[in-house]
Design goal:
This is ADP,ATP carrier protein. GO terms for molecular function: ATP binding; ATP:ADP antiporter activity. InterPro entries: ADP_ATP_car_bac_type, MFS_trans_sf. It is found in: Membrane. The protein is mostly helical. Helix 2 packs parallel to helix 17 and helix 7 packs across helix 11. A hairpin with a 3-residue loop joins strand 5 and strand 6. Helices cover about 75% and strands about 5% of the residues. The protein has two domains: about 230 residues, Growth Hormone, Chain: A (Up-down Bundle); about 220 residues, MFS general substrate transporter like domains (Growth Hormone, Chain: A). The two termini are about 40 Å apart.
Length: about 650
């Protein structure tokens, strides 16, 4: 990779080398080339010692390549990951594994010309490229670290708005992680993972529809502030009531005898629907916990945030909200683990999970008060200040294109590009649904006690937050280094590679048992750990790579294609991806009698879905690159014509 350096003489070659143990050395020698060439390679200690050490002017060395792209290279120590007792949950191990898969994907797509990625980055207006270009042409002095740090702090007028908004977002996601972990503990330990596909289809979907109808009616009668309170307060009150009144009185609320009589009369395939009836309070909790993510996070918070923030503020601070989400995941996961471990200090005969549930739901109540308080403060102190908020006028000229189910299907059939994009969305939804349910069935077998299960889920959420935080930071590097195609296949490769290991441990437990015993564990625990790593890696790569890839794929389309394509994917792709995996598992459970008996078939279906996913990603990468190259050529032609016209004048 060639760089033009403003800090060294142009007739000098700089070679930077790092040893395996993290030592860094940089050497400089004359070269006839005008451009400075910087090679980063992993060498042994002996080779590293031979290099001549020189002092770099800064940690970040800005370079320009060719005449149409600017890059920033950072020379930093890379310390080898050390074991810290977390096993499969070591965030450095899991994030490194994802980066390695990204490297493999980059090699697969290495036949693409590097110029395509350069033109793509330039066309998309990389902020780093723009800042490097400014620094390289001497129009602005480079900023010091202190200046950059101060630049991240919002000015006083923005702090008054963004700090309460950020606190709202943090607490909402903190509560969401607690609810997401708790709902799994309740339903899986009580009825098994087989119940999850039925809950998603027959509880979550009707619940979402009913809430949509209810919300639409209330929105015509109440003010925006009243609607916020009316929506969030019932959630908080229910979760408090569940922890302090419902759960302690399950023996009076659950129809155990009636469910037992139904189970004796119906075939084994009806075990999951009967379990929903038997544990109906858990099903309600599961549905409302899922709705918290859709209603409170997406509808209430982001609707309010988009209303009170300007476009410039959103560009600066929304990415920080994304990082804040993973910080909330880390802290809430540790809180779940902490309260779940209370059972170790309780005397015999005390229901430790009931006490832990009270602590968890109490935090939901405290968080609800903080959310309501922040919203109330912003309504009184921010939205009334014309310096901080100016109501936007309604735009009637631009309306979102909405397609019905039939229109969406027709549009998908007509456009190969949109069809491939929808395949990516559907494949992810179906794949993650299959692997999550199968993994949670193994997790219940390993941790049947609710407190032990909850402790595990707390650590799982923390590690998911850490790995996702890391992957969001390195995701931009993967895009710049390997391009769209490589980034798009990281998520299916993660699911495929870890899926092979996970299902092998389940299907060939007797065969691998001696090898697993040699490392001091069992096939069940190994499957749980590999499944946990699979879910952590797939979610982190989804947030950091898959979602940006999906949104970037709309960029080269024209306005009509973009609006209709996104509408078609939203109407068909998202629902089919979420419910498709559930329907497949329901059919197999009804026909095979249990989820365990369905596991071999689920493995085959999973790998078939991943195969279609990879094929669609490869096809879409070619179309995406062709689109972007045409767009780049058009832009270059326009710039050339404008330049010629300016010279002629």
């Amino acid at each position: 990779m060639s760089f033009v350096s403003p800090a060294f003489a142009p007739a000098t070659t700089l070679t930077a080398s790092r040893s395996f143990f993290g030592a860094r050395a940089v050497s400089a020698r004359p070269t006839p080339n005008v451009a400075l060439r910087m090679n980063l390679a992993e060498n042994g200690p002996a080779n590293a010692a031979k290099l001549t050490k020189v002092a770099l002017p800064a940690a970040d060395v800005t370079r320009a390549t060719n005449v149409n792209r600017v890059q920033e290279a950072s020379v930093a120590n890379v310390m080898p990951a050390a074991a810290n007792g977390m096993g499969a949950f070591d965030p450095r191990i899991t994030s490194t594994f994802t980066v390695v898969l990204a490297t493999v994907a980059g090699l697969i797509f290495s036949r693409r010309k590097r110029d395509e990625n350069k033109d793509l980055n330039q066309l998309m207006g990389s902020p780093m490229a723009m800042s490097d270009a400014t620094a390289g042409n001497g129009s602005a002095a480079p900023k010091s670290f202190g200046d950059r740090l101060r630049g991240l702090i919002p000015p006083e007028n923005e702090r008054k708005k963004l700090f309460p908004l950020g606190l709202m977002f943090f607490v909402i996601l903190f509560n969401y992680t607690i609810l997401r972990d708790t709902k799994d503990v309740l339903v899986v330990t009580a009825a098994g993972a087989e119940i999850i596909p039925f809950l998603k289809t027959y509880c979550n979907l009707p619940g979402a529809i009913l809430f949509t109808v209810w919300y639409s009616n209330l929105s015509n009668k109440l003010s925006r502030e009243q609607l916020f309170y009316v929506c969030i307060i019932p959630f908080v009150l229910f979760f408090l009531a569940f922890g302090f009144f419902v759960y302690p009185n399950l023996h009076m609320l659950h129809p155990v005898q009636f469910a037992a009589s139904l189970a004796a009369k119906l075939p084994p395939g009806f075990v999951a629907p009967i379990a929903i009836l038997k544990n109906w309070t858990f099903a309600v909790f599961y549905t409302l916990a899922e709705l918290w993510g859709s209603v409170v996070v997406s509808l209430l918070f982001w609707g309010f945030a988009n209303e009170v923030t300007t476009v410039d503020e959103a560009k600066k601070y929304y990415p920080l909200f994304g990082l804040m989400a993973n910080v909330a995941l880390i802290f809430s996961g540790q809180y779940v683990r902490f309260v779940s471990d209370i059972r170790a200090k309780l005397p015999p005969g005390v229901d430790g999970w009931a006490l832990s549930l009270k602590y968890l739901m109490s935090m939901i109540g405290v968080g609800g008060l903080v959310i309501i308080g922040c919203y109330y403060y912003m309504q009184r102190k921010v939205l009334t200040d014309p310096k901080l908020f100016s109501p936007r006028k309604a735009k009637s000229s631009k309306q979102k294109t909405k397609l019905g189910l039939v229109e969406s299907a027709k549009y998908l059939g007509q456009s190969k590009y949109i069809r491939d994009l929808a395949t990516l969305v559907i494949a992810y939804g179906m794949s993650i649904n299959i692997v999550e349910v199968t993994w949670k069935s193994r997790l219940r077998a390993a941790y049947p006690d609710p407190n032990a299960y909850s402790t595990f889920m707390g650590n799982f959420s923390t590690c998911t937050g850490i790995v996702t935080f890391i992957m969001m930071l390195v995701g931009r590097f993967i895009f710049r280094k390997f391009g769209w195609g490589a980034a798009a296949v990281v998520t299916p490769l993660v699911l495929g590679v870890t899926g092979i290991m996970f299902f092998s441990l389940i299907l060939f437990a007797d065969t691998v048992s001696p090898f697993i015993a040699a490392i001091g564990t069992t096939p069940l625990i190994a499957a749980v750990m590999i499944g946990a790593a699979q879910n952590i890696l797939s979610k982190s790569s989804k947030y950091s790579l898959f979602d940006p890839c999906k949104e970037m794929a709309y960029i080269p389309l024209d306005v009509e294609q973009k609006s209709k394509g996104k509408a078609a994917v939203d109407v068909i792709g998202n629902p089919l991806g979420k419910s498709g995996g559930s329907f497949i598992q329901q059919i197999l459970i009804f026909s095979m009698g249990s989820l365990a008996a369905s596991t071999p078939y689920l493995a085959v279906i999973l790998f078939a879905i991943i195969g279609m996913w990879l094929a669609a990603a490869k096809s879409l990468d070619k179309q995406f690159s062709d689109f972007m190259m045409k767009e780049t050529a058009t832009v270059a032609e326009k710039v050339t014509s404008d330049t010629k016209a300016a010279v002629a004048e």
